[in-house]
C-alpha cells in the first residue's frame, strides 16, 4: 500500500500543507537516524508546530491505519527513529519552546524538540540545571531523552531521565491527548509515566514534558588520571565506590579513544597512555575537599602515571568536550566503526575489557573503549575499514561483545536503546513470558500496532531480516526456508 | 546485531552514474567523513529557523551523497536546499568528526551553476547582482542616493531585471546604505610609511563593497597599521578578490578574479597581504586550494595564500606600539562567520579590543549563529535573512552594548539594518582602535 491522495489531503488539513513533505528526495533525508546502517524512506514527513497538530496528525494515522514514527533530532544510535515503509515520520523539531521555568518549585515545562542543553541554559540564570547529560546533549532533544530514558556521564550519581521527569503530556496512538504523571513525584495508581519513559516511541508521542531541576552544585572538582593499564583504572573505580564515595561521574577512555578525542578537541589528554579516568565530584565544598583527597590517594595507590586536576571551569569544560566528542571523533582515526552499547556489573569491568582486547586481537581489529565506568556501561567502538573488506568481521565482533555483556550478567543496552538494532537480541536477555508481557502492555496503548512498529520487541518475522526494500534472507538464499 | 554508524559501506552502493559532472565533484572521502551524528544541527541557521533535516548540514551532505551515487538529480530539491545554505561554516566549527563542509559546498555550488538551469527570475536577479557588486565604479554609482535606477540601467543585466522584476531591484537598493559622495569617491594613498619604529611592510586589499561603502574603515586600517609600525601599500588598480562569486559557485569568474588579484599583489615586496574583510580573507586564503590543479597557477596561488592575513592577525602579533587612549564602554564583538568559522580567527580581534583601555568586552549570546548577511544571501533569501537578522539584533540588545563591532561589511549592513542605525555606533574593530590611538571620539558609523 502507498498512501493515497485522501490520506495525504487529510494530513494537509490536519497541518499546514506546507508542513507536509511528500517528494521523495526530501523524504530521503529522513530515511535514517544516527544509525545509518538501517534505512527506510517514509511516505511522508510531517512537521507539526504544536501539540494540537501532533494529535490531529496521529488521529489521521489512527483513522487510516497509517504507521507513524516520531523523530526528534535524529541522533539515536539504535535506529529507534527509523521510518516505516508506507508510514509517516512525525518530526518534533518545531516544538521547541521552553514554556515555563519555575525556580521556586524547581521545575521546567518544555516542548519535546527542546535540546537537553537548552533546558540547562534556560534554568542557569536561577542557579539551577537539568541533570541527565547524554554526550550528545547539545543536540539531542528532551523528547528523545524521554523515549530512550537517556543517561549520560552523571547518571551514576543523579539517575536517568526517568528520575527527572515529573510528567509528560502524551498523544496516544488513537490521537487522544493525556497527561501521565503529575507535578509531585508520587502519584496514586499505577505509574504510567514510568511505563511511558523509555518506551522508545512505541506507546505514543510526548508533546510536553515537566522536568525536575536541581540546584547547581556548590562545588565541582574534576580530575583526569592516566594509568598503566585498563585493569588498574578499573580497580580504581571499584575502590572509589567501595570507599563510600558517590562520584558525579567516572568515565574511562583507552588509548585509541584518547587519540581520537585529542585530535578533535585538544583537551590535554595524554597520547599513548593505556587508560585514562575522568573522575568528577560535586556537592558541598567541604565534602568535595575530603573525598577529592581520597580519590587522589586511590589513584596514586593504583599506579597513576599522571594526575591532572582541572584548575578552572574552562579546563573542566575542555576535559568534558574531549569525552563527549569521543564517539564522533573516532571518525578521525578510522574510516568506519561500529558503536556498541552494553552493560556489565562494575566488578567485572577489568575482566570484560581484557576479554574484549583478546577478541579484538583474534579478529585482527582495533577496539576503542570509551564508557561510563561508574555504572559499568560500556561503549566499545569496533574500528574497521569497509574498503579493506573488514565489515563482516567487525560486525561479528561487535555483536559478540554485546553477547559477552549479557553472559557476564549485564545487559544488551545501557542507554542507546534496543530500537531496530537489537530487537532480534531481546530473546537472549528475556524469556518468552517476559516478552509476551511487554507485548501486552504495548497493545494496551497501541492495539492497532501503528506506533513505531518493528522496534524494541522482536516481531514474528525472520530475525536478522533488515527492514526496507526486499533483500533475501540468508536462509532463503541457502534454500532452507521460503517466503510466503 | 550492530550496524555501522555512518560509513561509506553502509550507504547504498553506487547504482547509477554520479549526478555531478567530473569537474571537481565533491570528494568521496570528504562525504564519507560525515558519521550522521547531528552535532551540527543546533549551530545551523537554517535548521534553527525551519527544523527540517534537508536544511541542515547533515541533511545537505546526505543529499550530496545521494547525488554522487546518482540516486537523485541536481535540479529541484537538491539545488533548492544547497542554495538555502548560508555558507556560514558554523557546522565546520561544531563538527567533532572534522567534516570539511566548506570544501564540499565549494565543489557542489559550481556544479549547480554549470548543470542546473535556474528559472528566469532567479537567473536575472543573480546576473544583476554579479554585474554590480564586484565593480567598484558601478557600486559608486549605486551608492549615490536614488542613482540605482537611473545610472545602473545602463548595465544590461540590471536593465533586464528592472524590466521584469522591479520589486527585486528595489530590494537590492534597500540594502545599499546611503554614502557621502566624498567617501564613495575617496581614494587611499598608494603608500603610507610606518610611524615610529618600523616592523614590516604590508599590502592592503581595499575591497569593492568595503572601499565604496566603508571607505572610513579602510582609512582607519591604513592609519592603524602605520601607527603600529607597518609600511602600508595599497595597489591602485586592484579589483574584486572574487569572494562573492566564489561563495555563490560562479567558479570561472571567481578564479579569473583570483588570478588577477594574485598577479597584482605577488610582485610587491611585502611581508603580508592584509584584508580587513572577513569574506575576502577567507577566499584569498583558499586560492592555494582552488588553483591546486592549475599547473600554471598552483604554486603562485599557494605562495599568495600563505601571505594572506586578516588585519587582526597582524595587529595581535607582538606588543602594541602606539599608545592607546581610553575608550570607555561596553563593546560587543560579533564574530563574522568568515572570520571565526572559516578562518578560525576569534581570539585576535578580542585581544586587539582588550588592548584598548576602558573597553569592557562582552560576548553576544548565540555568537556562533550567522546574522543572515552571508554574502549575497540577504538579497536572494530576504525572509530567512530577516529572521536571522532580527534574532541577532535581539541577542545584541540583550547585552546592552555601548558599541557593536564586527569585521565584515555584510554583517555591518545587516546588523545595522535590524538593530536600527541610530541606536548604538556600529563599527569595524580597527575604527575603534584608530579612535583610541588618535585620541578622538568614536565615529558613529
TrEMBL record, chain A:
The record places domain FAD-binding PCMH-type at 38-216
- Keyword Signal in annotation: no
- Which keywords accompany this UniProt record? FAD, Flavoprotein, Oxidoreductase
Co-factor(s): FAD
The answer to whether keyword Ligase applies is: no
Which first-to-last residue range defines the signal peptide? none
Q: Which PANTHER family match?
A: GLYCOLATE OXIDASE SUBUNIT GLCD (PTHR42934:SF1)
What is the name attached to this protein's record?
Answer: FAD-binding protein
From TrEMBL, chain B:
> What Gene3D superfamilies does this protein's entry cite?
Alpha-helical ferredoxin
Task: Provide the residue span(s) of the region labelled Disordered.
Answer: 1-25
State where composition is biased (Polar residues): 1-18
**Could you tell me the keywords of this UniProt record?**
4Fe-4S, Electron transport, Iron, Iron-sulfur, Metal-binding, Repeat, Transport
Q: What is the lineage of its organism?
A: Bacteria, Bacillati, Actinomycetota, Actinomycetes, Pseudonocardiales
Query: Which organism is the protein's source?
Result: Pseudonocardia humida
Q: Which residues form a coiled coil?
A: none
Task of the protein? Component of a complex that catalyzes the oxidation of glycolate to glyoxylate.
Keyword Iron listed: yes
Q: Fetch the InterPro entries from UniProt.
A: 4Fe4S_Fe-S-bd, 4Fe4S_Fe_S_CS, Cys_rich_dom, Glc_ox_4Fe-4S, Helical_ferredxn
Q: What does the record's cofactor remark say about binding?
A: Binds 2 [4Fe-4S] clusters.
Quote the protein name from its UniProt record: Glycolate oxidase iron-sulfur subunit
4Fe-4S ferredoxin-type domain: which residues? 24-55, 75-99
Task: Give the main EC class.
Answer: oxidoreductase
Q: Which cofactor does it need?
A: [4Fe-4S] cluster
Give the catalytic activity: (R)-lactate + A = pyruvate + AH2; glycolate + A = glyoxylate + AH2
The protein's Enzyme Commission number: 1.1.99.14
